[in-house]
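Case 297 in the screening queue. Each case pairs one protein sequence with one candidate compound; here the compound is S-adenosylmethionine. For every case the pipeline is the same: read the inputs, emit a complex structure as tokens, and attach any notable structural observations.

Predict complex for case 297.
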Amino acid sequence: MNGGYANDIRANARGIAEGRAGGPAEDERRTARGRAGGDGADNEGNDTVNRHGTRHGKAGRTTGGATAGRAGANAKKKNRTSRAWVARHLDDPYVKLAQKHGYRSRAAFKLLEIDRRDRLVRRGMVVVDLGSAPGAWSQVLRERLARPGGAEAGLDGRILAVDLLPMEPVPGVEFLQGDLREAETLERLEAALGDTAVDLVISDMAPNLSGVAAADAARMADLAELAIDFAVRHLKGEGALLVKCFHGSGYSQIVEAFRRNFFEVLVRKPEASRSASAETYLLGRRPRRPLVGGSGA
Ligand code: SAM
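Case 297 output:
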């Protein structure tokens, strides 16, 4: 599925520069989906986009008079922003590539890039994918753990995936729907793991952004803290944790939390992550035990 995608990216980017039409493919609607935590990418939209470029979201409610006027102006502004988002999204070479290779979102290429550089995923591993929907990272994991001999041969290893939202099944991936901030979800995940120690935890979790920077940073830090706490309790000594976070307020605390809890901490900004986006990934290797003073994020 991922063979030669780097070449594809260059070819695709050239095509766009030369003004060649990209031709949205059949499953554009699926890959162009904006969701909680973004398009599976950058939190740049939480609404669904269909193949006609219409973006469905929560309509602004009006209560009359001046409020209605303000709401109208806001709605117009939001529509302009939405149209710009759709245009940019449909022109994005990684969106086109995701369609071409059957990935559910362009986020697949971020994990592929990080994995290629840091050699995170190997056959035989137990991997936990936090914030997994729509499922592109799970698809990548599945490819990496697939036994030779086709789909029937199954996986060499185990993939557990969790998300607030439903996720279409990815063959071989054990999916749990639930909010990781709730103890019950963690308990179900831990029950599914049993005594099995984990080789790799990846978290692409991101909150719905409110636009209030301090509140968004705090919610992002909470999710990162959850991932760190889970990882440090379940990772093997040589295990690793990859977490999405955003540069900005709260970032240095998350880095500090990683440093307190991992012997090795690396910062990754894959090319597939839009340069205009504050999104960054932190990679912690070899957890320190026991968990040092909470993550403090
Ligand atoms: N890595 C995914 C992929 O490749 O398709 C994309 C993940 S998307 C950027 C972020 C996901 O985090 C959303 O699907 C969202 O529902 C999930 N999420 C956010 N907060 C969560 C929480 N508290 N518990 C579980 N999932 C959460």
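Case 297 observations:
- The CA atoms of residues 95 and 139 lie 15 Å apart.
- Residues 10-64, 293-297 have pLDDT under 50 and may be disordered.
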